[in-house]
């Protein structure tokens, strides 16, 4: 199959599964914010984000190695899957004695109550184990080519999570524990179903593990552990600084506002899922550069058009997604939406490192961005609150994209269309400032600037469609 058609087909399948599931989760935000107080939402989000940081440590990011090595025909699929499961189990056992470290993560409620995540240690560890196992299974079925099953599994997990959320929050009133436990149950059920439907039990062979392959997979995945931690820190440090320097109520409002830019990142996750399969091919170096450049420029057009729409719809989004007490959070969205756009582009540039198995270089780029993010959070949040956190996130993502765009040219010189990108960013900056200042006829300005961004970037998408049709 033509590589462009293959990418488009896989993206379409992943889009069905991911959009349907993630949209349902986002639409449930109004239910969550109505059932839990702002402080409870803040603590629940703190647990989720902490687990996200622990996940790559416990799993050693082996899920990334599963998709990369599982796609190469020279490796036995059975060995790849078994090694991944054994790695997760070993990592979990080693992590158990370190639970007192959770006491280092403190939070302050709006009522002046102080606590730490050590109170939730058992549910955090259970969440980590189920999340790591489910990720290995889902990555492996992608490597096997079961993209439809991968998409259906995403919908299934979301449906189970929502049903259990309604049961645990509305009926049982478990609040924080119910919110997190519903995710744990959905991950566990997903793992069981994948084992049965895809016959994953056939790929488990504990005898005579391929130690050479294991070393290769760990050499690939280990640099991605600090890389993944730093990625989460960039998004997570905002909430930690806000929860400690402000309070959990402010952190909760910021967290809900962050869900809107998450829709933009959703485009990245859908594309990257499909891209990781398509980028491993037998092209020559020049063909690969052309492929990356064509796809990258089209991708940037889509991302920035969506980011512009996010800026324009900031107020509407907070009205629809949350109860009125969260409405002030719309002021964070314009800045976060532009930042999310750059985050998407940096994710695309990261694929160059992953293709060439240069995961150390990927880690160094993320470390550069994380240092900027943490420093700016410490500097700006005491002075500007949530707006300072949003600015720190934006600047760190811009720095990450620029670093990777320059550094990755050593391996794959992606030919970005710089004039179009520059003009698009200027338009987005003007649009964001006008949204926050709310001048007379602000909505007219927003529609006009959104139209300008769309018109500037639509040509790139039309050219890609023509190329696809020509190759068909």
Automatic annotation (TrEMBL):
<feature type="transmembrane region" description="Helical">
    <location>
        <begin position="327"/>
        <end position="348"/>
    </location>
</feature>
<feature type="transmembrane region" description="Helical">
    <location>
        <begin position="298"/>
        <end position="321"/>
    </location>
</feature>
<keyword id="KW-1133">Transmembrane helix</keyword>
<feature type="transmembrane region" description="Helical">
    <location>
        <begin position="443"/>
        <end position="462"/>
    </location>
</feature>
<feature type="transmembrane region" description="Helical">
    <location>
        <begin position="256"/>
        <end position="277"/>
    </location>
</feature>
<keyword id="KW-1003">Cell membrane</keyword>
<feature type="transmembrane region" description="Helical">
    <location>
        <begin position="387"/>
        <end position="406"/>
    </location>
</feature>
<feature type="transmembrane region" description="Helical">
    <location>
        <begin position="360"/>
        <end position="381"/>
    </location>
</feature>
<feature type="transmembrane region" description="Helical">
    <location>
        <begin position="149"/>
        <end position="170"/>
    </location>
</feature>
<dbReference type="InterPro" id="IPR002797">
    <property type="entry name" value="Polysacc_synth"/>
</dbReference>
<feature type="transmembrane region" description="Helical">
    <location>
        <begin position="12"/>
        <end position="33"/>
    </location>
</feature>
<feature type="transmembrane region" description="Helical">
    <location>
        <begin position="418"/>
        <end position="437"/>
    </location>
</feature>
<keyword id="KW-0472">Membrane</keyword>
<feature type="transmembrane region" description="Helical">
    <location>
        <begin position="80"/>
        <end position="100"/>
    </location>
</feature>
<dbReference type="GO" id="GO:0005886">
    <property type="term" value="C:plasma membrane"/>
</dbReference>
<keyword id="KW-0812">Transmembrane</keyword>
<feature type="transmembrane region" description="Helical">
    <location>
        <begin position="176"/>
        <end position="201"/>
    </location>
</feature>
<dbReference type="Pfam" id="PF01943">
    <property type="entry name" value="Polysacc_synt"/>
</dbReference>
<protein>
    <submittedName>
        <fullName>Polysaccharide biosynthesis C-terminal domain-containing protein</fullName>
    </submittedName>
</protein>
<feature type="transmembrane region" description="Helical">
    <location>
        <begin position="120"/>
        <end position="137"/>
    </location>
</feature>
<dbReference type="InterPro" id="IPR050833">
    <property type="entry name" value="Poly_Biosynth_Transport"/>
</dbReference>
<feature type="transmembrane region" description="Helical">
    <location>
        <begin position="53"/>
        <end position="71"/>
    </location>
</feature>
<feature type="transmembrane region" description="Helical">
    <location>
        <begin position="213"/>
        <end position="236"/>
    </location>
</feature>
